[in-house]
């Protein structure tokens, strides 16, 4: 739901990787009357959370669809149900006259590039810290820090560092590179990707580390007996084990990046430079700066369509009943 | 893997018995050292810079100096008066703290029903829990705002601008994930104790409070911390739904960016100091509970 939690999800969903096989499964038929799980079911315990989610998530989702069909601005907002119904005109305007399509492209490409680059970094970090060495505990804690810092802090400090004439420019000039503007113009796109990578690679690192630990000792021994070189061993023995965790990490990180609002918002401020006008920021500005609420709702609904595909894959991969992710190698 | 079977997943650890570093080593040593050093530098250099800049003068930060030319420890005093950071932190602690507690309580009771009782629609509920975690916040912001505004005009209750708006929103948005955490955790708990209690005639409520909750503290801590972080880290909802008195630390920090107008140099030093102050509680939380939070991932680890 939030812009920040989805990424952290597997941190715990993986936990259930242990095949505890709790026999609760929805399908297996149990003899009625015998099993406690079919008597005295305390559904009232689901009520508080369920009611909250219906009122604050499901109802607003419906409201979002309705608003996207209305001509709603700051004057009509209070009595929004009386606002003129204009059918699909908001969608039409979003596609033809606004920067929606451009923003979608920016969002998708930024999310894909950032996820793809973080992958090898995370894998390398996990491979390097897989074996015990002195100070490894400290190294692991330090590796977590960029991921742990709140996005609004990451945005604020990198905004300062990337200022024209700031410390990044000073450093690059020292190396003989005159890079130009980072927070405006075409390079801002790469600045966003770079900062996103800096703050999110530990996520891949964590998931890959967990994947590495599912490699049995025997596998290592077999590879050693065969006299496999380190690269051969990695490619043919270890990497197959990582397919599951890595694809899961890719999907979640893509979803997280595409929904990410805080980092681009704080890093570049509003109005965002054209090249980093990602979809969440565009939606936000259309609502709360231009007060075109109907148009903004249409854009938000479009974003739902955008995440539908990766979300569908994700839902397929999560085995709901055992909580086990995807196919294990 | 068999050892993990009987343990709650978040605590699961493989015995370190037969570990042989030479056999399990994956990278040649020089490469390993290179990777670790590069990554440590990539993390630590910016962090060091933030700390140095937080005690630096604004002019010096603006000119790109890495090391402070003169020490300005007073940045850490000025941050409290430039912007009402204290009030922001108090609001953040109150809102995120209560969200964490309530959310964890709701999550554990919902998860208990979802894991231990079979009923029609159970899988749909589980699927919804996973799906709702990925709905963009920007999609929800406007309709939730409209909903609260309508409630205000219909019932005469003004929610927007108060901590309640954030409180209710954060609890709800943290619930799908927190519940999912508890679902995966409770699955790993053995059922025998509950069944024994059930035979002794204990009610579901009694089983939940006397057996499930005491056994699931690690899971409860994790779901509470993630709910806390959702509230602490949010800018989107807080930027729209708060006013001067109810704004959170995340929004207060953004105000530093706005207090730079008039051609003067932005208050870089204070901004960095305030950033560190806002990050500190989160980093401490993570480091203290690192074992629980990462534990789920490194279950079966070789620490």
TrEMBL record, chain A:
<keyword id="KW-0472">Membrane</keyword>
<dbReference type="GO" id="GO:0055085">
    <property type="term" value="P:transmembrane transport"/>
</dbReference>
<feature type="transmembrane region" description="Helical">
    <location>
        <begin position="189"/>
        <end position="212"/>
    </location>
</feature>
<dbReference type="Pfam" id="PF00528">
    <property type="entry name" value="BPD_transp_1"/>
</dbReference>
<comment type="similarity">
    <text>Belongs to the binding-protein-dependent transport system permease family.</text>
</comment>
<protein>
    <submittedName>
        <fullName>Sugar ABC transporter permease</fullName>
    </submittedName>
</protein>
<feature type="transmembrane region" description="Helical">
    <location>
        <begin position="43"/>
        <end position="70"/>
    </location>
</feature>
<feature type="domain" description="ABC transmembrane type-1">
    <location>
        <begin position="104"/>
        <end position="314"/>
    </location>
</feature>
<dbReference type="GO" id="GO:0005886">
    <property type="term" value="C:plasma membrane"/>
</dbReference>
<keyword id="KW-0812">Transmembrane</keyword>
<keyword id="KW-1133">Transmembrane helix</keyword>
<dbReference type="InterPro" id="IPR000515">
    <property type="entry name" value="MetI-like"/>
</dbReference>
<feature type="transmembrane region" description="Helical">
    <location>
        <begin position="248"/>
        <end position="270"/>
    </location>
</feature>
<feature type="transmembrane region" description="Helical">
    <location>
        <begin position="138"/>
        <end position="158"/>
    </location>
</feature>
<keyword id="KW-0813">Transport</keyword>
<feature type="transmembrane region" description="Helical">
    <location>
        <begin position="290"/>
        <end position="315"/>
    </location>
</feature>
<feature type="transmembrane region" description="Helical">
    <location>
        <begin position="104"/>
        <end position="126"/>
    </location>
</feature>
<keyword id="KW-1003">Cell membrane</keyword>
<feature type="region of interest" description="Disordered">
    <location>
        <begin position="1"/>
        <end position="38"/>
    </location>
</feature>
<dbReference type="InterPro" id="IPR035906">
    <property type="entry name" value="MetI-like_sf"/>
</dbReference>
UniProtKB/TrEMBL annotation, chain B:
<dbReference type="InterPro" id="IPR035906">
    <property type="entry name" value="MetI-like_sf"/>
</dbReference>
<comment type="similarity">
    <text>Belongs to the binding-protein-dependent transport system permease family.</text>
</comment>
<feature type="transmembrane region" description="Helical">
    <location>
        <begin position="93"/>
        <end position="119"/>
    </location>
</feature>
<keyword id="KW-1133">Transmembrane helix</keyword>
<dbReference type="InterPro" id="IPR050901">
    <property type="entry name" value="BP-dep_ABC_trans_perm"/>
</dbReference>
<feature type="transmembrane region" description="Helical">
    <location>
        <begin position="207"/>
        <end position="232"/>
    </location>
</feature>
<keyword id="KW-1003">Cell membrane</keyword>
<dbReference type="GO" id="GO:0005886">
    <property type="term" value="C:plasma membrane"/>
</dbReference>
<feature type="transmembrane region" description="Helical">
    <location>
        <begin position="139"/>
        <end position="161"/>
    </location>
</feature>
<dbReference type="Pfam" id="PF00528">
    <property type="entry name" value="BPD_transp_1"/>
</dbReference>
<feature type="domain" description="ABC transmembrane type-1">
    <location>
        <begin position="89"/>
        <end position="289"/>
    </location>
</feature>
<feature type="transmembrane region" description="Helical">
    <location>
        <begin position="267"/>
        <end position="289"/>
    </location>
</feature>
<dbReference type="InterPro" id="IPR000515">
    <property type="entry name" value="MetI-like"/>
</dbReference>
<keyword id="KW-0812">Transmembrane</keyword>
<protein>
    <submittedName>
        <fullName>Carbohydrate ABC transporter permease</fullName>
    </submittedName>
</protein>
<feature type="transmembrane region" description="Helical">
    <location>
        <begin position="167"/>
        <end position="186"/>
    </location>
</feature>
<feature type="transmembrane region" description="Helical">
    <location>
        <begin position="31"/>
        <end position="52"/>
    </location>
</feature>
<dbReference type="GO" id="GO:0055085">
    <property type="term" value="P:transmembrane transport"/>
</dbReference>
<keyword id="KW-0472">Membrane</keyword>
<keyword id="KW-0813">Transport</keyword>
């Amino acid at each position: 739901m939030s812009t920040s939690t989805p990424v952290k999800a597997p941190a715990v969903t993986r936990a259930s990787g242990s095949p505890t096989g709790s026999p609760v499964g929805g399908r297996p038929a149990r003899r009625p009357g015998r099993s406690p799980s079919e008597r005295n079911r305390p559904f009232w315990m689901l009520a508080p959370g369920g009611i909250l989610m219906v009122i604050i998530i499901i109802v607003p989702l419906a409201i979002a669809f309705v608003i996207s069909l209305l001509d709603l601005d700051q004057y009509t907002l209070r009595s929004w149900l009386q606002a003129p119904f204009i059918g699909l005109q908001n969608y039409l305007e979003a596609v033809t006259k606004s920067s929606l399509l451009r923003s979608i492209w920016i969002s998708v490409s930024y999310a894909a590039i950032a996820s793809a680059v973080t992958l090898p970094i995370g894998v390398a970090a996990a491979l390097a810290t897989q074996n015990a060495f002195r100070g490894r505990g400290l190294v692991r804690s330090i590796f977590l820090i960029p991921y742990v810092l709140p996005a609004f802090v990451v945005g604020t400090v990198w905004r300062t560092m990337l200022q024209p004439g700031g410390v990044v420019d000073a450093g690059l000039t020292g190396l003989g590179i005159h890079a130009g503007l980072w927070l405006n113009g075409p390079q801002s796109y790469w600045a966003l990707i770079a900062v996103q990578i800096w703050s999110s690679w530990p996520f891949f690192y964590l998931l890959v580390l967990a994947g590495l630990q599912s490699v049995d000792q025997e596998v290592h021994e077999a590879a050693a007996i065969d006299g496999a070189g380190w690269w051969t061993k990695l490619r043919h023995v270890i990497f197959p084990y990582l397919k599951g965790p890595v694809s899961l990490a890719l999907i979640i990180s893509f979803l997280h990046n595409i929904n990410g609002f805080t980092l681009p918002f704080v890093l570049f401020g509003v109005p965002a430079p054209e090249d980093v006008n990602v979809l969440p920021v565009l939606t936000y500005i259309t609502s709360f700066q231009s007060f075109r609420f109907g148009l903004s709702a249409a854009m938000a609904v479009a974003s739902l369509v955008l995440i539908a595909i990766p979300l569908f894959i994700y839902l397929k991969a999560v085995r709901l009943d055992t909580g086990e992710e995807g196919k294990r190698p | 893997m068999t050892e993990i079977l009987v343990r709650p997943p978040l605590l699961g650890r493989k015995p370190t018995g037969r570990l042989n570093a030479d056999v399990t080593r994956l990278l040649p040593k020089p490469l390993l050292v290179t990777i670790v050093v590069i990554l440590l530098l990539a993390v630590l250099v910016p962090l060091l810079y933030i700390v140095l800049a937080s005690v630096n003068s604004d002019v010096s930060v603006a000119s790109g100096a890495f090391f402070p030319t003169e020490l300005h420890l007073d940045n850490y005093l000025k941050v409290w008066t430039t912007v009402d950071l204290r009030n922001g932190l108090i609001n953040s602690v109150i809102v995120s703290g209560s969200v964490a507690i309530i959310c964890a309580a709701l999550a554990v009771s919902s998860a208990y029903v979802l894991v231990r009782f079979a009923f029609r629609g159970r899988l749909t509920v589980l699927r919804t829990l996973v799906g709702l975690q990925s709905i963009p916040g920007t999609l929800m912001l406007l309709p939730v705002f409209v909903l609260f505004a309508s409630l205000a005009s219909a019932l005469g209750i003004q929610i927007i601008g108060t901590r309640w708006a954030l409180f209710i929103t954060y609890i709800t948005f943290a619930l799908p994930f927190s519940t999912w955490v508890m679902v995966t955790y409770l699955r790993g708990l053995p059922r025998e104790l509950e069944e024994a209690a059930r035979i002794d005639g204990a009610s579901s409520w009694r089983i939940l409070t006397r057996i499930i909750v005491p056994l699931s503290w690690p899971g409860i801590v994790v779901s509470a911390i993630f709910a806390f972080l959702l509230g602490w880290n949010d800018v989107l909802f807080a930027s729209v739904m708060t006013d001067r008195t109810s704004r959170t630390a995340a929004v207060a920090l953004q105000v530093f960016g706005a207090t730079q107008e008039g051609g003067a140099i932005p208050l870089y030093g204070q901004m960095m100091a305030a950033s560190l102050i806002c990050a500190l509680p989160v980093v401490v939380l993570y480091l203290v509970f690192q074992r629980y939070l990462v534990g789920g991932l490194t279950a079966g680890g070789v620490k």
